[in-house]
Specification:
The protein is α+β, with helices and mostly antiparallel strands. It has one domain. Helix content is 55%, strand content 27%. The protein contains three helices and four strands; from the N terminus they run E-H-H-E-H-E-E. The protein has a four-stranded mixed beta sheet with strand order 2-1-3-4, with no helix packed on it. Strand 3 and strand 4 form a beta hairpin. Helix 1 runs antiparallel to helix 2. The radius of gyration is 23 Å and the shape is elongated.
Length: 128
């Protein structure tokens, strides 16, 4: 019989993976900043075309801009934390589903134990 089971994928922090993560964080941060600037531009454009902008519309723009600022703060925090982590640390990257084969006579405790895949520089390093 086959069953589905959650498997945690962890990444070992190496100099290469650290630089990749920092690059990803910077790219996301830049994208959020561009979106925020675009929203500010659109809001000003609407203010100029309409003499009396709707208050709810302005609040919606401000809410969207604030949401992006919060995401930028979170990315800054994640970047700080990444700088503090020593090389060799394991970072949880994601959870995936795996099909596990079970047979009569298998130890249930072994089947139920959480499985983990360790990735190092994009290569499967270990399966626990």
């Amino acid at each position: 019989m086959k069953i589905l089971q959650n498997v945690i994928v962890k990444q070992v922090l190496t100099e290469k993976s650290k630089n990749e993560l920092l690059g990803n964080y910077e790219a996301k941060k830049l994208q959020l900043q561009k979106e925020s600037d675009q929203l500010k531009f659109e809001m000003k454009k609407l203010e100029k075309t309409k003499k009396i902008p709707s208050l709810s519309l302005k609040k919606h723009f401000e809410k969207e801009i604030q949401a992006r600022k919060e995401k930028i703060k979170l990315l800054d925090f994640q970047m700080e934390q990444l700088h503090m982590l020593p090389l060799g640390s394991e970072l949880k990257e994601k959870e995936i589903k795996a099909i596990i084969e079970i047979n009569e006579g298998d130890r249930w405790e072994d089947i139920q134990s959480e499985k983990t895949i360790i990735i190092k520089d994009g290569i499967v390093d270990e399966i626990r």
